[in-house]
Task: inverse folding
């Protein structure tokens, strides 16, 4: 049924023209009648007719302005008329009132339907549904007669290959009707013609024979089987011996490790003593400094110098005295850091595996690994790096106010992969000091040691044109012990008078100190 337009049906008896729509020329569906001219139309057909300004339709037959109303009497008359089934030409003999046509189409054997299996999509008359589901549909459900499992017909071959209850034939004795899951048991226990492995196959015998030849084979090859057993036992003994040697090596590693731990503990005690000694020395120097400051009068100065000619010697001794205090504080800070690292390693848990034991044996510590106040690493590999120290005046003020010798540090990788650490001390007797050394990096195992002949340049970039260096210092890395293979205990090498505080005006721009590192291969 087409819901738009009228009924496309054939009446059983005579059809009158006043039952047809004037627009679609089919039997009226929900008829509407014009009050002026009396023409009738399907309700759905009026949708496409324009209304005039007075909201009236224009009759498509006589072009008059019309109003329409629902013609229920004619609708009842039409629905009560007998019609033939729309499939009467295919053979359907149904003929009843038009109002019953829709219900008939739902059960009509000649109505075209779609296969209920979504993947199929075939179309056929309803009377062929049973045949299609039983014989034609590729997606019909099948029941395996052997395992009672359901499967789709188009997957029948896959099911036949996988069905464990499918009866198959033995390839050796031709026995039939053996379920697939029992075939392995049949070949091992029952089939007299299936080749079998020797009972001593696990020892290495590669002979295969029929079931009734096994006893004869065992008798004839008994010496061969004994030799195989002896070889197997010998191989097992070798494995046990190697495992014993491995165990001895692990035990030896553990003994050496315990000895190293004991040495580390002793080193820790010695380092603590050195720290205490350095602290006492610093305290003594501070006391001497206070005493020296109290000698401000001309009388005391004359007593110390003895004469006016000795005043220059006193000034030199005074500068050396201040330098000694600064060096003692810096060495004490480094010694304290080394002691902390040694103590951490000394009380670490003992490794259980031989690999861990080997890696822990005789592990040295490096002053390059001492923790610092600020530490940055540039992981890009290049022979030239730029370090910008922001808020440098704040760092200098902290160093002066707290009398601190904790450095600001940065590390970088050269183009070859060497990792270089640079320590910057903002205040060391009115100078900025700089020191450098190698430290543990990602590529150490693949590099050449000692370092190839090269020169490390440390420069302070001027603020005026951004190209001139205010101060520079160079280190020959191939001859300097601080650039040996890390980890090591060599004190970093550098310059205590790298940049004078009086030159800050030339070097600092927007409170930023810019340092350039360059590595020149020679």
Result:
């Amino acid at each position: 049924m087409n819901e738009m337009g009228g009924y496309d049906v054939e009446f059983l008896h005579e059809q009158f023209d006043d039952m047809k729509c004037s627009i679609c020329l089919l039997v009226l569906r929900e008829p509407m009648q014009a009050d002026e001219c009396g023409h009738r139309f399907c309700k759905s057909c009026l949708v496409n007719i324009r209304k005039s300004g007075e909201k009236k339709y224009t009759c498509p037959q006589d072009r008059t302005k019309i109003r329409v109303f629902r013609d229920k009497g004619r609708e009842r008359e039409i629905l009560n008329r007998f019609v033939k089934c729309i499939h009467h030409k295919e053979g359907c003999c149904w003929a009843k009132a038009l109002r019953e046509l829709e219900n008939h189409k739902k059960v009509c054997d000649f109505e075209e339907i779609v296969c209920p299996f979504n993947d199929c999509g075939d179309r056929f008359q309803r009377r062929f549904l049973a045949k299609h589901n039983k014989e034609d549909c590729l997606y019909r459900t099948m029941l395996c007669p052997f395992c009672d499992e359901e499967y789709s017909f188009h997957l029948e071959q896959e099911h036949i290959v996988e069905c464990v209850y499918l009866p198959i034939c033995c390839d050796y004795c031709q026995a039939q009707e053996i379920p697939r899951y029992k075939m392995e048991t049949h070949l091992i226990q029952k089939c007299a013609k299936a080749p079998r492995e020797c009972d001593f196959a696990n020892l290495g015998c590669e002979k295969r024979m029929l079931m009734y030849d096994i006893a004869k084979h065992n008798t004839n090859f008994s010496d061969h089987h004994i030799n195989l057993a002896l070889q197997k036992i010998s191989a097992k003994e070798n494995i046990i011996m190697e495992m014993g040697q491995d165990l001895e090596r692990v035990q030896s590693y553990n003994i050496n490790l315990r000895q190293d731990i004991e040495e580390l503990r002793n080193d820790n005690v010695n380092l603590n003593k050195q720290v205490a000694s350095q602290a006492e020395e610093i305290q003594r120097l501070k006391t001497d400094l206070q005493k020296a400051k109290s000698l401000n009068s001309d009388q005391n100065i004359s007593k110390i110098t003895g004469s006016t000619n000795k005043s220059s010697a006193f000034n030199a001794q005074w500068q050396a005295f201040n330098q000694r205090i600064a060096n003692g504080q810096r060495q004490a800070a480094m010694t304290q850091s080394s002691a902390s690292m040694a103590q951490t390693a000394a009380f670490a848990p003992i490794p259980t595996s031989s690999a861990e034991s080997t890696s822990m044996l005789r592990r040295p510590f490096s002053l390059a690994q001492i923790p610092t106040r600020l530490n940055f690493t540039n992981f890009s590999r290049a022979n030239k790096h730029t370090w910008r120290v922001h808020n440098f005046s704040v760092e200098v003020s902290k160093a002066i106010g707290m009398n601190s010798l904790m450095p600001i540090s940065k590390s970088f990788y050269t183009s070859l992969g060497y990792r270089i650490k640079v320590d910057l001390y903002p205040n060391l007797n009115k100078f900025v000091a700089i020191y450098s050394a190698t430290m543990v990096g990602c590529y150490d195992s693949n590099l050449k040691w000692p370092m190839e002949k090269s020169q490390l340049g440390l420069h302070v970039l001027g603020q005026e044109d951004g190209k001139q260096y205010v101060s520079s210092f160079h280190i020959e890395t191939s001859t300097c012990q601080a650039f040996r293979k890390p980890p090591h205990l060599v004190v970093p090498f550098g310059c205590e008078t790298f940049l004078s505080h009086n030159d800050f005006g030339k070097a600092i721009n927007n409170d930023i100190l810019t340092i350039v590192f360059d590595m020149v291969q020679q």
Residues 459 and 472 are 4 Å apart (CA to CA). Residues 222-294 form the longest helix (73 residues). Confidence is low (pLDDT under 50) at residues 297-301, 303-311, 337-375.
